[in-house]
Amino acid sequence: MGDKVIVNCTVVDGRTAEGGAPVPDAAVLIRGERIAAAGPLAEVMPQASEATVIDLGGAYVTPGLVNMHTHLSLSLPGAEGEGVKAMGPHDLALYMADGARRTLACGVTTVRCVAEKDHADFALRRAIDAGRVPGPRVFTAGRALVCTGGHGHEGTDTLECDGPAEFRRGVRAQIKAGADLIKLMISGGIAGENERIDTPQLSADEMAAVLETAHAWGRKVTAHAGPATVIAEAVALGLDCVEHGYELTPEVAAAMAARGTALVPTLLVTRCADFFEELGVPAWMRARSLGAGPRHLESYAMALDAGVTVLLGSDMPPFWPFEGTNATVRELEHMSEAGLGPARALHAATLGPARWLGADADLGTVEAGRYADLVATDTDPLASASAFRTVRWVMKGGAVVRDDAAVPSLA
Ligand SMILES: [Zn+2]
């Protein structure tokens, strides 16, 4: 690949939420997979004499989005989900590859998978990394660990464990398969028929066994969690991230902020009635989801008040259509509108996740040395998170993977 230089654009990234400023009339020089220089046009162009020029026509350029709560093999209760659950390994792998391609086209250049079926995520990641299928960079937990009958036990995207010894073995089995992090279900949730959102599901010795083992191997742990009491217990034991956090209190939010435990609020899952209807999910699940909505939003506000680091995650596959856009962008709009604002929303979608993943030397900003994972939007992401509805160009690792202005091609 020869050098490329992107011109006629304004560069914006998560650093604006930390006192940085957007760069109007910017240029980004790309050498191989990475950014070689980014800044004002006049500073970058002298280094770009050999580069192919990509004129973005006045677009805003941001880092590719990172979706921190993804399931590409998701099967919710109901007819649609049963179809996914019935797939054998070959169909499942192709289904997930299709989802990965669609995800990348949305401008999501990195995903954190937090429970995928049958370890197909590892095969998918190998295929993406080898260039056999298009898709985002994949950080994955493999199977989520649950107690017998615990949240999500119905599918092969979880592994049932009971007692500290089995949970330790569960952690090691995921790491053996290639897991970058560990996902744990510590309470009930929306999609489990025999549980409530506030059902505690793990004992303290089980949580401690997971955290101790995962941390010893250098893996972070994130937990699906609803009620404050169980979250408080897990945070005190060293939990690195909370998913959903449906029923936080100011006390537990303060503890999360003090210990650096992040929150991926997934606001979408309690505000998507029409979507659940379309999908044919059972009435009990729709009722539970909507019923939890107001408290979920209060929890999110408590987290923001306490200064908890919040990160973008849709729970739904990132590309699934929601209200005129995709799940990732709809979630970011909810996060922004419910108190975060557009600049911090951009941070929660890029730099914040890159830091949690320990990948901020490679991802999350438009800066020399980072992978050239970039998206272009027509409108300003600092004015509104809805700017990501206007994504029209996507680059991953220096290769343009979407360009709405180009002649369609299958090459
Ligand atoms: Zn989930």
List keywords for this structure.
TIM Barrel, alpha/beta, 4-stranded parallel beta sheet, Urease, subunit C, domain 1, 2 domains, 7-stranded mixed beta sheet, single chain, 411 residues
Question: How would you describe the overall organization of this protein?
Answer:
It comes from Sphaerisporangium album. The protein has 411 residues and is an alpha/beta fold. The protein has two domains: 4-64 and 365-403, Urease, subunit C, domain 1; 65-356, TIM Barrel. Helix content is 35%, strand content 24%. It contains 13 helices and 18 strands. The protein has helices at 41-44, 79-85, 89-105, 120-129, 163-177, 204-216, 228-237, 250-259, 273-279, 283-306, 327-340, 342-349, 351-356, and strands at 4-11, 23-31, 34-40, 52-63, 65-70, 108-113, 137-140, 144-146, 158-160, 181-185, 220-227, 241-247, 262-264, 321-322, 325-326, 374-377, 391-396, 399-403. Strands 3-2-1-4-16-17-18 form a seven-stranded mixed sheet. Strands 10-11-12-13 form a four-stranded parallel sheet. A three-stranded parallel sheet has the order 5-6-7. The longest helix is centred in the last third of the chain and has 24 residues, at 283-306. The model has no long low-confidence stretch (mean pLDDT 95).
